[in-house]
Amino acid sequence: MWFFTEEEKDLQRVCRDFAQKELAPFAEKHDYEESFNFSAFKKMAELGVLGITADPQYGGIGLGATAATIVMEEFGKACAGSTLSYLAHSILCVNNIQNNASEEQKAKYLPKLISGDHIGCMGMSEPEYGSDAVGIQTKAQKNNDGTYTISGTKMWITNAQYADIAYVYTRTGSERKNLSTFIIEKGTPGFSVGKPIHKMGMRSSPTGELVFENAKISSSQLVGQEGQSIYHMMKNLDIERITIAGISLGIAQACVDQCVKYAQERKQFGKHIGSFQLIQKMIAEMATETEMMRSFLYSTSKAFDQGIRGPSMAAQVKLALPKMATKIALDAIQLHGGYGYSREFPLERMMRDNKLNEIGAGTNEVMIMIIAKNLLSELKES
Ligand SMILES: Cc1cc2nc3c(=O)[nH]c(=O)nc-3n(C[C@H](O)[C@H](O)[C@H](O)COP(=O)(O)OP(=O)(O)OC[C@H]3O[C@@H](n4cnc5c(N)ncnc54)[C@H](O)[C@@H]3O)c2cc1C
């Protein structure tokens, strides 16, 4: 982008090289096997991006939403599944700890998460509470000795199976807003990981359940004040939505690149298919839509970094980009004919992967609710 700083351009170049070397060649294998690319995750630590938004004193690089989105775009272009796991680690776990935890908690947990020794996840959703995240029912009951007992199940948790550290939202009171967060360590008695969830896309990103059966947790694991987590939750959702849209941008760009290449190679009726006007229209439209996505996304991430945080800004990019990327991926499959529908090309995987971005971090319908509520908040019944 013309308005990227020199630092952002360097980050883009380094991440592009890394993704083409460490992610793209293995994306199909991990999708097929439904396995996690541990080797790439470790190398992301060497690249320095696991703590992209965390303070340098804990090993992070202290950058903002634009930098994190650049990483998501470049990684997403190569392997969206590995990128989703990266997002859960760096944005849902590390960034939440960075922004909301005490100095002691940050010093205890961030260095190992940033060095890649530990993998992180975030547990908000539950079997019965997804879009209605504030309604969650996993309970943290305060005991007389000051400890908490947690019971309940978290569902759809990215990285669950491999996570050493889980950032978990619980209910600590009867009012809807009485939510509190705990940092839970793997191996805590009463805490276990449930069955893995098999998915249509993002298959290289492990998804599972976090199960709490009277797990006794020290009050030192509580993040911030009891009952204050709703503010943390809402604040982190903005950067989560901007960065997940970055994965969709990467997918859209990968589709455009693949279509341009194929249109110049594939011949029918004795001509390159790129010489047919219907194919030209498809490519011209998908490339234009991708540029629109890029401008919208990075102007929003820049505004976010400058503290300009309109209530529905992140929801708008989260609504627009994944939807457009699904359409682009479907068009790219169409342009490739039968080959597009086959596993010989990565397009069907990209379409399956991108569909998640219309659901995770809030569905399209929930984004519409947020945007409409904001626009119509002044509307009064006469
Ligand atoms: C692969 C994957 C990874 C995920 N990773 C994580 C993670 O790491 N951590 C985490 O906490 N969660 C995670 N999630 C959960 C994700 O955020 C939820 O799936 C999502 O918020 C939707 O919740 P739900 O699946 O319960 O659907 P529901 O909320 O049950 O929605 C069902 C349908 O109803 C619609 N709907 C709901 N309410 C309304 C309304 N008021 N008006 C109109 N329509 C409505 C929805 O849009 C949807 O179409 C993940 C999900 C997936 C699939």
Structure description:
A hairpin with a 7-residue loop joins strand 4 (165-171) and strand 5 (179-185). The chain is an alpha+beta fold and 382 residues long. The protein is 52% helix and 15% strand. The chain has a four-stranded mixed beta sheet, with helices on one face. The chain has three domains: 6-119, Acyl-CoA dehydrogenase/oxidase, N-terminal domain (Butyryl-Coa Dehydrogenase, subunit A, domain 1, Orthogonal Bundle); 121-228, Butyryl-CoA Dehydrogenase, subunit A, domain 2 (Beta Barrel); 230-375, Butyryl-CoA Dehydrogenase, subunit A, domain 3, CATH 1.20.140.10. The protein binds flavin-adenine dinucleotide. Flavin-adenine dinucleotide (FAD) binds next to helix 5, strand 1, strand 3 and helix 12.
Describe what is shown at a glance.
The protein contains twelve helices and ten strands. The protein is of the alpha+beta class and 382 residues long.
What structural keywords apply?
Butyryl-CoA Dehydrogenase, subunit A, domain 2; alpha+beta; single chain; 15% strand; four-stranded antiparallel β-sheet; 12 helices; 382 residues; four-stranded mixed β-sheet; binds flavin-adenine dinucleotide; Butyryl-CoA Dehydrogenase, subunit A, domain 3; Butyryl-Coa Dehydrogenase, subunit A, domain 1
